[in-house]
Amino acid sequence: PCLTMGTLALDTEIVESDIFLTLGLIDLGKGGAGTPRVLSLLSSLLERSVQKNETLMESAQIKDVITIFHGSRAPTLGIRQYIDRIFKYAGCSPSCFIIAHIYMERFLQRTDVCLTSLNVHRLLITSIMVATKFVDDAFFNNAYYAKVGGVSTRELNWLEMKFLFSLDFRLYVSVETFLRYCSLLQKEAASGLQIERPPIQACRVKDNWLTKDDSACASTVTR
């Protein structure tokens, strides 16, 4: 028998639902406990990208394009810890992390900037904040996100403007693009390359970059 369009649509919906469940993008209500897996998968992907970029730049003696997203030194808080912290305090939906990933890719492509340990944290807080404002119904002001991200409000305002202008204010993400990036993270899960870590307790909100010496970070797992 021939396959009808209705059957094709149903199959597509099933595949999409499986991906969303894998990433923790679907709210299962009270039965759904724990941190969405998209956080650990995105962390793993970014960590490997940073490591590859820095290794390549060092071996080829390539100078990075310095932007306002670069710090003078890398924060002691790891990427996974930082993403977990943002998720805990920012209250954004898991889908925002997919959108933020897409925005980061667009920024890197338009600016020829390499993702490194010096810029990944500021790019994360900025892209997630922008994604939350664009996608979610409710969100906090920049002062709050600045405190969560460990930067000043003035700095985050500048980062947001630079980020938006670099994207030419094109924040729309098609369903096809969203699904493509979801599939990318699902492959990350299937590859088994990421290291599963115990849940990391987010630190209390402070005004600057947090360190592992913070007493509120006692349960942080060392990398």
TrEMBL record:
Pfam families: Cyclin
Keywords: Cell cycle, Cell division
Cited InterPro entries: Cyclin-like_sf, Cyclin_PHO80-like
A GO BP annotation: cell division
Coiled coil spans: none
GO molecular function terms listed in the Swiss-Prot or TrEMBL record: protein kinase binding
Keyword presence, Disulfide bond: no
Entry similarity comment: Belongs to the cyclin family. Cyclin U/P subfamily.
UniProt xrefs under PANTHER family: PROTEIN CNPPD1 (PTHR15615:SF108), PTHR15615
Name of protein: Cyclin PHO80-like
Taxonomic lineage from the root: Eukaryota, Viridiplantae, Streptophyta, Embryophyta, Tracheophyta
